[in-house]
Amino acid sequence: MKRLLKHTILFALVALVAYPVLLCLLGDLGWVRTARTEMANRGFLNSRIKDIRNYHNVDVLFLGSSHCYRTFDTRFYRSQGISCFNLGSSNQTPLQTYVLLKAYLDSINPRFVVFEVHPDIMKNDGIECAVDLLMNTPMTCEATKMAWHTGNMKVINTWLYSLYNQKICHRLERFHEEPTMDDAEYIPGGYVEINTKEFERKRYSRHNLFIRPEQMEELKQCLNLLKEHNIPYMLVEVQDAYQLRSAFKNHEWFENKMKALGPYRYKLLPLVDTVHFCNSNHLFKPGIELFNQDFVVDLKAALAALPPKAENQ
Length: 313
Prior knowledge:
The protein has 313 residues and is of the alpha/beta class. Helix content is 50%, strand content 11%. The protein contains 15 helices and ten strands. The protein has helices spanning 2-28, 45-51, 66-69, 74-79, 94-108, 119-122, 127-136, 141-150, 153-168, 171-174, 213-228, 242-245, 251-259, 273-276, 285-304, and strands at residues 60-63, 84-86, 112-116, 180-181, 184-187, 191-194, 233-236, 264-265, 277-279, 282-283. A hairpin with a 3-residue loop joins strand 5 (184-187) and strand 6 (191-194). It is globular, with a radius of gyration of 21 Å.
């Protein structure tokens, strides 16, 4: 029995060392399917994080998922005299937003925050965005907590590989992401422009929306962090195509949940699915233009209500 116990402990110790070593070595060869090992992707988070160093003391910080970085065109807001940065990322849930805020809020130092919220994101498990964040942002204590909090092996494996990738190989600091990928182009300031439209007509079954309790708690944590910094905010839901929106049976319930957290904006514009949308839940260029022209009115009103910028900003 003692011998068995000794061998078991020895095997566990060897496995504890061998597992991360093999994960990293095989990850470099692209043979690992239970971790993400590539950095570049159409969400351009790598480019966005490196771009942050150029933006400080902005008027507006945009946060959220692809509905955020594909909708709030920073070029348009700059043309309106509003300095801004878009810190959205693909499928970004409040779990990841909190990590990004802890890392970059003080540096960007916005006067106002636009926090994009969407029913699909609030029910999301956050796995896709977690691995994206781990591979494309510098490792922090908050990122480590987020990774282990998920309890997902793909996320934990990606965390292990990212430690190796960043701390031993130093690839993150050397990596250069091309500004265009397929039909997507990264625009300085965090916006991503999509240049093709392949709208597909779909029939969605009617369903009830729901919110993961952990995402609601993290959303509250994000908002509390903004309050601690005395930064006012607005929760904004970007309009979906009618073919998807009409499938939501209880959207009013979702609206009420968001309204309970603070200022919330959800406005339906007269948009046509096949003209103004890329797909069921992303606007295309004509829709983006109409949305931003309408939204900037409310945004300017919110900014006008704030104290003026301090002289040293």
